[in-house]
Write a structure and sequence with these properties.
By secondary structure, this protein is mostly helical. Helix content is 83%, strand content 0%. It has one domain. It has ten helices and no strands.
Length: 222
C-alpha cells in the first residue's frame, strides 16, 4: 500500500514537472509550443496554478528582498499577501473570462480551460526574469537601475507576445483577428470590472439598508 502511494506521488510530481518544464518550449517556440499545449495536452490546469503561485512569490520577493533603491522601507511594511494575490489573480481572471466571452462570439476554437492554461504559461518569462533581478538589485546602484528596468520591460513584452501567440494558436486566428480579439478582450475586462464594482456597491447599499432597518426595529422594541 505504501509502495503504491509512493509510486502515485512520484508519478504525479513527475508529470507536474514535465508540464511545468514544457513552459520553456512555449517561451522559445511559442507557435509550436502552444499547438502542443492544446492539441497534445502538454500543459495542465495544475501546472498553470503552480505558475500563478510562482508569479505571486516573485512579486512578494521583489517587495521584500529587492535593494533599498528600488523598494522603499515603507512600501515593504505595507505589502499584503492577500492584496498582491488579488492584484495578480483578478486581472488574470478578468482576462480569461473576457477572452472566453469574445472568442466564443468570434468563432474561437479554444475553451475557457485552453485560455486559462495558455495565459498562465505566458507569465513564465516575467517570473524567470524578475526573480534573478531581486538579487541583482542589491548589487547595483540607482544609476545602474535602468538596466533592471530594461530587463523587466523585456519580460513584460515577451509575456505579451506569448499571450498574442497563444490567442492565435488556441483559436486558429489570423494576425488581424488576433489583434482585434485582444483589443476587445481588454475592453471587456474594463466592462466586467465596472459591472463587478456596480454589483458590489449595490450589495453594500442593500446590506446597509437592512442593517439600519434592524437597528431601527431594535431601538423601537426597546
Amino acid at each position: 500500500m505504501i509502495e503504491k502511494a509512493r509510486a502515485n506521488t512520484f508519478g504525479y510530481l513527475s508529470g507536474l514537472w514535465r508540464e511545468i518544464a514544457f513552459s520553456l518550449r512555449v517561451m522559445t517556440k511559442p507557435f509550436d509550443g502552444y499547438w502542443d499545449l492544446k492539441h497534445e495536452k502538454r500543459g495542465s490546469v495544475r501546472a498553470s496554478v503552480f505558475i500563478i503561485l510562482c508569479m505571486l512569490l516573485a512579486t512578494l520577493a521583489h517587495y521584500q528582498f529587492s535593494g533599498f533603491f528600488f523598494v522603499k522601507s515603507f512600501v515593504r511594511d505595507e505589502v499584503s499577501i492577500i492584496r498582491e494575490f488579488l492584484v495578480i489573480t483578478v486581472p488574470f481572471a478578468l482576462w480569461v473570462i473576457s477572452s472566453w466571452c469574445f472568442t466564443t462570439l468570434m468563432d474561437g476554437e479554444g475553451s475557457m480551460k485552453d485560455i486559462f492554461i495558455a495565459t498562465a504559461y505566458a507569465l513564465v518569462p516575467m517570473i524567470i526574469i524578475n526573480l534573478p533581478l531581486v538579487f541583482i538589485s542589491n548589487l547595483v546602484t540607482l544609476e545602474e537601475g535602468a538596466f533592471i528596468d530594461v530587463l523587466k520591460g523585456i519580460g513584460i513584452v515577451w509575456s505579451g507576445f506569448l499571450i498574442f501567440s497563444g490567442t492565435l494558436v488556441t483559436h486558429q486566428y489570423s494576425i488581424g483577428k488576433g489583434l482585434l480579439t485582444i483589443l476587445v478582450t481588454l475592453a471587456g475586462m474594463g466592462i466586467l470590472l465596472f459591472l463587478a464594482l456596480l454589483v458590489a456597491t449595490l450589495l453594500q447599499q442593500v446590506l446597509s439598508f437592512f442593517i439600519g432597518l434592524y437597528q431601527e426595529i431594535g431601538l423601537r422594541l426597546l
